[in-house]
């Protein structure tokens, strides 16, 4: 059983937001040895004390405006594991964590916010290790079966300095996650970790 106080915030253009962006950029530079593209959307942050320990950004769009992740992959929306209606989706990026419980709190907060905004599913790009971590805590992470990474399009979005993540094996894939089940899985795991 773990006894820590975790504070989770949805940050806006404040000092908290700037600190979150610095944390995200530092961790991405270290993990992927690349210069991260701009973080967009609503950033959720979990702290232990004054230290950021987890982040997750979510972003919505309109039905006629593709998500940036859609620009990275070519796929047929009719083959998606769940209905692909942009107005019912959020794009999740910048899931970075150095503490398991903080990670669960930040995912739960992002899922709750997305659900409150009327969203039903998250669109996420991930490498096998990250997806395995989500599945271990009971999240449903379904790959979009025919999604093919379009390297030339990715470079135009992330720039040459952001390409290492995409060029190193294993390659990322595109996934959809049901939000209600995400939140439930997080709460179950938080309960397991914080009670006997």
Number of strands: 9
Instruction: Encode the helix/strand succession as letters.
Output: EHEEHEEHEHEEHHEH
Principal-axis shape: globular
Helical content (DSSP H or I, runs of 4+): 25-40%
Give the CA-CA distance, first to last residue.
6 Å
The chain-level mean pLDDT equals 89
**Rounded to an integer, what's the Rg over CA atoms?**
16 Å
Tell me the β content.
25-35%
User: What is the quaternary state of this protein?
Assistant: single chain
Description:
It is a single chain. The chain has 196 residues and is an alpha+beta fold. Helices cover 39% and strands 25% of the residues. The protein has a seven-stranded mixed beta sheet, sandwiched between helices. The protein has a two-stranded antiparallel sheet with strand order 4-8. Strand 2 (42-48) and strand 3 (51-59) form a beta hairpin. Helix 3 runs antiparallel to helix 7. The longest helix has 18 residues, at 15-32. It is globular and about 45 Å long. The chain starts with 5 loop residues before the first strand and ends with a helix.
